[in-house]
Amino acid sequence: MNQEESSAFSRRPKVSLIEGDGIGPEITSATLRIIEAAGGTIDWEPVSAGMSALESDARDPLPQATLDSVERNRLALKGPLATPLGGGFRSVNVALRQQFDLYANVRPARTIDGVPSRFSGVDIVLVRENTEGMYTGIEHYVDPRRTAAESIAVITRYGSERIVRFAFDYARAHGRKKVTLVHKANILKMTNGLFLEVGKQIAAEYDDISFEDLIVDATAMKLVLRPEDFDVIVTTNLFGDILSDLTAGLIGGLGVAPAANLGAGGCAMFEAVHGTAPDIAGKGLANPTGLLRSAVMLLEHVGQAEVAARIERGVRAALASAESRTRDLGGKADTAMYTRAIIANME
Ligand code: NAD
User: Fold this and answer.
1) Is the CB of residue 49 less than 8 Å from the CB of residue 42?
2) Using an 8 Å Cβ cutoff, are 257 and 109 in contact?
3) What is the pTM assigned to this prediction?
């Protein structure tokens, strides 16, 4: 399939829509309403996954019809999913990432006026390697009495090269100036040593972007001392998992943080990073910002940057006032009021 034929480049791209469990349907419906009001042109293809899929006729948390839809469209927007406990079900989120080789997890964290946070001036994009490292799932107990357990981290030259190159290409495409590679090569001399070695080689190909490497523990400290010193961060799976929640915390938490999983063959899945919030599900109180801002990343990805900018302006204006902010952010609004405030503030 060439670029012109692929869905991402069509004027009205088709996108698989997984609304998800818990608050998923509420935040999805708010998101679709806002995109439509902003003039976004997307053909949504609703498909199911998670608990709702398991309880439907499909009886499967990740039905084949959903996989086929994502395979066809190469684009998906996904709400939070509850992974059924026990019964040998693997995480649907992990399964989707593996199935479509979504190797780059992109998590932007930028200060939003009005959202309570201890920090200001934060504008960081964290790029996490999504497929290898400590999360390969190669684990075992060393003996039947379970006196010890081992877990194997795998870092490959191929995986390191493509994620570091992705981070540099992202930096270049988005007018960013610096890439910080985060590792623990002083202790994990081979796995993280390889990641760092490859990173330095790739960095030499991008003389327009500055490069530094930093040990993960020092990074954790510096992120809370001087977050404004960071621009793009690229790191391994485990460190990326932890540090991306830290960077979300710098801007007010997971409720407002967007994410994209991008992969081989142009496949891209945009998702809210918070969970299904069972405590408030169905009450009309959920904050749709995380999913909506992930949809903004989707709109930018498919060339609808003006629509994306309009929504981002609406979000920032709505979040600036306690009257229109949702309760998780210290405001008074419910989902419907917040949605209306965004739409009213989009120009
Ligand atoms: P959670 O994120 O669902 O909830 C933590 C707290 O944050 C709750 O008090 C909740 O009300 C609040 N919260 C979360 N999102 C919110 C929103 N958009 N608006 C307002 N408040 C919000 O985390 P949890 O309770 O640990 O997990 C619940 C379920 O979600 C579990 O089944 C878990 O496996 C699943 N989960 C899914 C994903 C995902 O699909 N990406 C991520 C994390 C957890």
Assistant:
1) no
2) yes
3) 0.92
- pLDDT tens-digit profile of 33-92? 999 999 999 999 999 999 989 988 888 899 999 999 999 999 999 999 987 776 666 788
Q: Is 249 close to ligand 1, i.e. is its CB under 6 Å away?
A: no
β-pairing, 104-110 vs 123-129, is: antiparallel
Determine whether the shortest distance from the Cβ of 279 to ligand 1 is under 6 A: yes
Give dist(CA 18, CA 25) in Å, integer.
Answer: 9
**CA-wise closest residue to 215 among 232, 236, 231, 245:** 236
Of 68-72, 134-138, 216-220, minimum mean pLDDT range:
134-138
pLDDT in the model for residue 91: 80
Answer for the pair 287, 338: CB distance below 8 angstroms, yes or no. Answer: yes
- Is 177 within 8 Å of 231 (Cβ atoms)? yes
* Location of structure tokens 């990805």: 301
- CA-based angle 294:184:124, to the nearest 5? 30
As annotated, the active-site residues are 135, 184, 217, 241
